[in-house]
Amino acid sequence: MFVIECFIGHPCRFWAVSAMFGAMFLTALVTKLLNPRLQCLPTCIALCVASLVWFSLGVVEENALVHQANIRIDILFVWPFAFVVTLIVVCVSVLNLIHAVIRHRRP
Asked: Looking at per-residue confidence, does 21 or 107 come out higher?
């Protein structure tokens, strides 16, 4: 619950997480452009989706602040979705990194 409490009422924190995923997306994209043989398209797509999800959460949170929403049903549905997306993105990124390292070590 502590993690959720850190974000409620602070849309800028959502946007900071979105910016972090966006920066990782741009880094992966530039890496792909510099090394065309590198296969990091799944990571790029996953990072872009995560950035958009967290940005959307910031928009929802700002809307809740503007309308002074007291009953937050969106938390029950949106938060689990955001955490599942984030978990999938982390798994895809780590697996892609491991795969790239293994492929790089082969002669």
From this structure: 21
**Structural domains counted in the chain:** 1
Q: Give the sign of the dihedral formed by CA 28, CA 33, CA 38, CA 42.
A: positive
Residue 7, pLDDT > 80, answer: yes
Asked if residues 11 and 59 have their Cβ atoms less than 8 Å apart, the reply is: yes
Structural domain harbouring 29? 2-105
Q: Which helix (H) or strand (E) holds 80?
A: helix 74-105
pLDDT of residue 106: 66
- Close Cβ partners of 79 (under 8 Å, ≥ 6 residues apart): 4
CA distances from 103 to 24, 37, 97, 98, 99 (A): 22, 11, 10, 9, 6
How far is Cα 36 from Cα 38, in angstroms, rounded to an integer? 5
How far apart (Å, rounded) are the C-alpha atoms in residues 11 and 23? 18
Residue from 2, 1, 5, 23 nearest 61 by CA: 5
